[in-house]
Structure formats: structure tokens, C-alpha cells
Amino acid sequence: MSTADVYWMAGLFEGQGHIAFSGGVPALVMASSDLDIVSRVATILGSSVRGPQMRRGDKKDVWVTSVQGPKAVGWLLTLFTPFGRRSRTRVRETLIRWRRSTGEQEPAMGNR
Fold it and tell me: Domain of 10?
């Protein structure tokens, strides 16, 4: 993985990705109708591609890849610096929630 991959992923997740806290664990999810994009994300994340998920009406089918738990935490920390303010806030909130659910101390993260 290159620095360019990290910045590409950060930009992509800023616009299309989803940072979630589901089932007591953080998750990083990418869904798109562009299989080539989801496949590249899956390769970088070390995850698999699921789909296509059929959509109702005239909407395009969607492909999905995601990571959860400690792997998602690692990626959230990797993407933290190139993320914009709103995504960094979401990362902080997600990690604090995860730490509280595990009984661990809250992470020390800058306010960039």
C-alpha cells in the first residue's frame, strides 16, 4: 500500500464511505455501483467484495466491501490525518464509543 493509496481512500471515504459503530464494533463500509472502485478498496483493505445487491426501480446494483473491529480501527487511525474535519470527528466519536464499550481508556487524538 502506498501513500497515494491512503490519500485516495481517504478522499473516497469522505464522499462515499461510511464509518459505523454496529454490533459493538467500529466498521468502515464502502458501497458503490462501480465494481472496479469497490474491488480496489477491497484489495487495499484486505477485505472481500459482496454483491451485487439488487436495488428497486431504476437504481443501479451496488457492490459492498467492509472491515470491522480491530481491522477497522487500524484503518480509521491510518485515514485519520488525511480525513477532513467532519470525518475526523466521526472517527473520534466512533473510537470513543468503542473504547467505552470495551471498558478501555479513551484514545488520545489531536484536534486537527
Answer: 3-102
Instruction: Copy the grid coordinates of residue 103.
Output: 471498558
3-state secondary structure of 29: strand
Q: What is the DSSP string of 50-72?
A: EEEEP-STTPPPEEEEEEEHHHH
CATH code of the domain containing 51: 3.10.28.10
Residue pLDDT tens, the chain, 112 long: 899 999 999 999 999 999 999 889 999 999 999 999 999 999 999 999 999 988 777 788 999 999 999 999 999 999 999 999 999 999 999 999 999 988 765 555 555 4
